Known about the structure:
This is D-alanyl-D-alanine carboxypeptidase/D-alanyl-D-alanine-endopeptidase. GO terms for molecular function: serine-type carboxypeptidase activity. It contains 13 helices and 13 strands. Strands 5, 6, 7, 8, 9 and 10 form a six-stranded mixed β-sheet that branches. By secondary structure, it is of the alpha+beta class. The longest helix is centred in the N-terminal third of the chain and has 28 residues, at 2-29.
Amino acid sequence: MVRIVNAVRPRLAGAAATARPRVARLVRAVKPQLTRTPGAGTARTWQYTAGAATAGLALAAWVVTAAGPWDANGQRTAERDRAAALERAGGADHDDDSGTGSGTPRPAPSAAAVLTGLGGTAHAADTTGGGKPLADVLGPLLGVPALGGSHAAVVVDTATGKRLYGTGADKALTPASTTKIATAVAALSALGPDHRLTTRAALEPGTKKLVLVGGGDPTLTARKNSDGWAGLRTLATDTAKALRDRGVHDVTLAYDTSLYAGPDLHPIGVNDNLARVSALMADEGRADASTSGPAPRVPDPAAGAARTFADLLGEAGIKTAAPGPGKATGRATTVASVASPPLSALVERMLTDSDNDIAEALARQTAVATGGPADFDGGARAIAAQLTKLGLPTAGSVFHDGSGLNRDDRLTANLLTALLAEAASPARPDLRPVLTGLPVAGFTGTLSGRYTDGAAGVVRAKTGTLTGVNSLAGTVVDRDGRLLAFAFLASDTTNAVEAQAALDATATALAGCGC
């Protein structure tokens, strides 16, 4: 611990000292003003102007720079020094066949550190002096009829771990897509942020049998522009070259999905929000040109990916018969492979877009990494076990999937804030993608169309929506520069739009609070 402190103290102290005067001036400049909400009686909410949001974003960017410098890989020097002090190896690849050797992508650096607060220093909670007590600010907002008959909320200071507010903290409610926060923490801790998922083509010895082996990469794409994700076209091109080099010009094609087990159809049934879960799929089995959100899905993603691969091999001069299911033997030689971006990127995409296909894949990958069966039940058990192993408060929590589509999932606001606080901990840079992947209010992902007149750019949070269920969990930098983790869960809601607005108003009030 002494080595860690000594490694980072000079830069952080300098950044804090340099930033403090500017922080004070900008906080005064963007201090929110109370406005009375029509029809709300004495209830008040904090409202930010567009200029305040812009100033906040600029301030955050300036302080990050001050805490730097940043190296060529986008990793802050301070965090690199801290990692060196910890003498952590990092960059581990957790799959012998992941293709991170010569000619394939190298493991990515850890995600950048998240600043505790705008001033670089921790502020102790003050719920009695100066500002209005937090309970008086949040209580009326959470008690509105739009949030239904049952709700829970927790706010935690990530720097100190102290709970600043709680109501129904240990009440287990349906979390909807905020479940993905738990899935992300479990997968990152079990596999590591640099782990990659590999799709490969294997040739059986003495035969012309080629097997397309699925590695469970839900981001594999057959599009001409792979946009940095693993490309089925690249795999076909490389496979065709390897076969020609061996004098092979026609093959019998099979596809192997044996990495995953059990039913592939989610308990909700056929649904545009999720394809059948398979170790082999291209473009998430989408039957249209979409890249995110609900869409019609093909009935058999693995067979569809194999047919596309066969067509691509044909375009590259390799003849194939119609592909069928099969399994590669241990004697098969890998002739070509493609690897996904590091797990950190998959986690960020899952959280930003609320991607159910990635979530269910990561649940199964967590099960594979921990020796459990890679099915819905096995993935759920693996998530719960991994969180328990981390010492997180899992009492009352029940997992049935990784996406939160299952209405029988149960989480507590206490667990959700604990997950976020763990991801913000300086001791867990491997979990940082959980924070960097959260949608930014008014700018990205599922929050891009929300907070247009609130705390845009200040709140980062995962949304959750099912019929009668609305949730929001994430982080916010409050008026005093503290990084706070919050979780708001509401059940028995009757109007999703009104419930979302109520949750957004509560998060906005938290951002403006100097409580």
